[in-house]
Write a structure and sequence with these properties.
InterPro entries: ParD-like
Number of helices: 5
Strand content: 5-15%
Radius of gyration: 20 Å
Number of strands: 2
Protein name: ParD-like family protein
Helix content: 55-70%
Organism: Microbacterium sediminicola
Structural class: mainly alpha
Shape: extended
Order of helices and strands: HHHHHEE
Strand order of the largest sheet: 1-2
Length: 119
């Protein structure tokens, strides 16, 4: 088994790997290695079609028409996009800006109401 080698990674890519890895119980380094293996498999696959993958990602093709390698790439891309959107989403701030109240579960599992209009 080969050892690890140090390398430099773009900060944005590292943060994306950290976020995606957290949902799969992987470190950022493990997630980057996972993505690299996925890319290697895609490039090595004689049946994988980047054109078909791009069509699905652009909403112009059917996911079900893809082979398993292409589906894996599409799912990975969707997962990355979802992680980026979740990281940018701050509903508490949005609700506060709108002067709305909201309910959430606290650390003890109790439902609590938050916001300006809380009584």
């Amino acid at each position: 088994m080969a050892g690890t080698m140090p390398t430099r990674v773009d900060g944005e890519l590292f943060e994306a790997a950290r976020a995606a890895g957290a949902t799969a119980s992987r470190s950022a380094a493990q997630q980057l290695a996972h993505w690299a293996r996925l890319g290697r498999e895609l490039e090595a696959s004689p049946t994988a079609s980047l054109v078909d993958i791009r069509r699905v990602l652009e909403g112009r093709g059917s996911y079900d028409d893809l082979g398993e390698h292409e589906q894996a790439v599409v799912r990975n891309t969707w997962d990355e996009e979802i992680q980026k959107r979740r990281a940018a989403l701050n509903l508490a701030r949005r609700f506060q800006e709108q002067g709305r109240t909201w309910s959430e579960v606290d650390d003890d599992g109790q439902v609590v109401t938050r916001g300006e209009n809380t009584h």
